[in-house]
Specification:
Chain lengths: ~400, ~220
């Protein structure tokens, strides 16, 4: 009989909550909103972290650029041959790419050139070359990212686009497919077409390339090979995956700083509620505890009842808050909140937040809310319950 | 049997002010007796009731109920003692006014986690005995004073305690209702309960069911 769940006590707790209906609705609403905000922030952070990691993982191990007067210039394509001669280098590919400013939408897209007969330095590009008939058409054609497609459609270009070349003449390129990248961040604002077409749009000579990407057989040798390349081409800048990782993370850390601020604000609000609750009971509430004690409730009976009250409210708020956050972030893609993140490049189109199920986040939010709220409910009651009942009800 | 031995109770109002509510009080109440404690307001009647119910502790002296030293019980056991032995009808009833009649009467049973049948049986017996069944779902604050008192008595009896304590039970009742209360006492006396009543209502003086009258004045038994 002692071990059974005491439904009379639970019923009493539910009754107690309902008797203070408006106050408890207010508390539960605020708590739910805070839990919702906190969980959303964690969900978004996790998704973006995942996206960035995937993006970084897809990056080439070494990129070689030519530097002149401190600025980036086109590099000679024949440099690939000398790089290939270095031991440990598996492949060296001259890339032809650049940014094209799409004036109507005020957005920058990156145009990447591919060559059917070259090894592709990225899985996603390999797929494009293999599956689209980019190379087989007579006309110039391109495969575009979903963000690009959307922007073009919003600006009345459905099947083709006229690029303006540096000399002012137009170059028409047909859209033959939609690009499916390894990550959303990458594929969204990307356009893939043949190297020849990219050269034409950017007015780049056959013997030149934007940069050279190098593939090595052993990732531990990246640093050694990088310094060898630097020896052969003193006018080059060598960027390794590690360098890129750091700069990506810097962008992200700056962003998570903003979110940390939001996080702190919501925690602060939460603790104000807690403080208010913990700082005292109304005389009505005190009297009720006194009555219960006077008719034979023990301190632990009172505390158990208060535990149920706190648990019901906070767990209910937690569940609703977390479910709402999951829907908000993963189904509705976090309107408003996401802009704070993706805003880091205003020229970048928005991207999808991938669903990452993260038990740690759920636990963290749980422990930041439920036990703290329960403690705030129990402690003031405990103070009253341990007084002489006689004093409390007098 | 209830026994108070040289009990003193003082309340500390602040550092320099001590109120002596009871001064060397001794009394003996046998099982099944109905005792009336009378005296003017402030004479210490309520303090005696509180001590018997273990709602407070004496400053000095001891209180023994059924051979148990209840004046030294730790809080947890004091609660259990009240729960199992005492039915207290408070002067201000001390009902939870936002709950129903039924819920108030059940309150002492809640921590015991009774099974539903047992609880229902106890509830119905108490409500019938004190004629409040017809109002069982009414909210306390919508009841009259007399009805509230019957709820308070029903609650005090729901766990079938041996000792019933009532503090100024007729203070808020008219004469007709006061006589009703005395009828209820008669019923309880038949059940061989020990009953202690604090009152200054002359209605109780010389009443046939009263076994002993104890008079108090300024914290002393006279
Ligand atoms: N909790 C308390 N704190 C301070 N003084 C008290 C307290 N309880 C009773 N007293 C004082 O003790 C005296 C006796 O009170 P009480 O026992 O209530 O008498 P009665 O019930 O006969 O009116 C009174 O002077 C009262 O003011
Ligand atoms: Mg009194």
């Amino acid at each position: 009989m002692r071990n059974k769940i005491n439904f009379y006590l639970i019923e009493y707790a539910i009754n107690a909550i309902l008797r203070q209906r408006y106050k408890n609705i207010f508390i539960a609403t605020t708590l739910t909103f805070l839990i919702f905000l906190l969980t959303s922030i964690f969900f978004i952070t996790n998704s973006i972290k995942y996206e960035l990691n995937a993006t970084v993982d897809a990056l080439p191990e070494i990129v070689v650029q030519k530097i002149k007067a401190g600025r980036h210039y086109d590099i000679e394509t024949h440099a690939t041959e000398e790089i290939l001669a270095i031991t440990g280098v598996v492949d060296a590919v001259a890339r032809v790419w650049g940014y094209y400013y799409f004036e109507n939408a005020g957005v920058n897209f990156s145009i990447v050139g591919v060559d059917e007969f070259e090894a592709q330095y990225k899985e996603s590009l390999k797929r494009v070359v293999e599956t689209s008939n980019l190379m087989n058409t007579k006309e110039s054609s391109m495969v575009v990212g979903s963000g690009v497609k959307e922007t073009m459609q919003n600006n009345y270009y459905k099947d083709y686009f006229n690029f303006i070349k540096p000399d002012g003449t137009l170059k028409r390129v047909d859209v033959v497919g939609v690009f499916d990248g390894d990550t959303q961040l990458e594929s969204n604002d990307m356009i893939v077409m043949s190297k020849a077409d990219v050269r034409e749009i950017f007015d780049m000579r056959e013997s030149k390339a934007t940069d050279i990407v190098v593939k090595v057989s052993n990732p531990d040798e990246v640093a050694t090979i990088a310094s060898k390349i630097k020896l052969i081409f003193p006018d080059s800048r060598i960027i390794t995956k590690n360098d890129l990782k750091i700069s990506y993370q810097n962008i992200f850390d700056y962003k998570s700083g903003i979110f940390l601020a939001l996080f702190v604000v919501s925690l602060f609000t939460f603790f104000i509620i807690i403080y208010d609750k913990a700082s005292g009971l109304s005389s009505e509430e005190k009297r009720e505890i006194g009555i219960l004690k006077a008719i034979g409730w023990r301190v632990d009976d009172v505390l158990k009842e208060k535990f149920y009250e706190g648990f019901i409210i906070s767990f209910f708020s937690y569940m609703i808050g977390v479910i709402a956050a999951a829907g908000f972030v993963y189904i509705f893609q976090a309107p408003l909140l996401q802009n704070i993140f993706t805003g880091y490049s205003q020229l970048k189109a928005s991207f999808e937040l991938p669903f990452i199920f993260d038990v740690q986040t759920l636990f963290l939010v749980f422990f930041l809310s439920v036990p703290i709220y329960i403690a705030a409910t129990i402690i003031p009651s405990w103070k009253i319950a341990t007084l002489d009942a006689d004093e409390v009800i007098r | 049997m209830i026994e108070l031995k040289n009990v003193t109770k003082s309340y500390e109002i602040n550092k320099n002010n001590l109120v002596v509510a009871l001064n060397d009080v001794s009394m003996k109440i046998e099982e099944g007796e109905l005792v009336v404690i009378k005296g003017a307001s402030g004479s210490g009647k309520s303090s005696v009731l509180s001590l018997i119910a273990a709602l407070s502790k004496p400053t000095t002296g001891e209180i023994i109920v059924d051979a148990k030293q209840i004046s030294k019980l730790p809080d947890r056991f004091a609660s259990e003692y009240r729960r199992d032995n005492i039915g207290f009808v408070f002067q201000k009833y001390n009902l939870i006014t936002t709950l129903s009649v039924k819920e108030n009467i059940l309150l002492p049973l809640v921590p015991l986690n009774p099974d539903a049948q047992d609880a229902d049986a106890k509830l119905n017996r108490a409500m019938e005995m004190f004629k409040i069944s017809h109002k069982k779902d009414a909210i306390i604050k919508n009841l009259s004073g007399g009805e509230q008192q019957r709820v308070a008595i029903a609650r005090a009896n729901v766990n079938n305690p041996k000792i019933i304590i009532a503090d100024e039970p007729t203070a808020n009742l008219d004469e007709k209702l006061s006589l009703h209360f005395i009828e209820m006492l008669r019923e309880l006396k038949k059940l061989n309960k020990t009953i202690v009543i604090a009152t200054h209502d002359p209605l109780f003086f010389g009443l046939d069911i009263v076994d002993i009258e104890i008079e108090m004045h300024n914290g002393v038994v006279i």
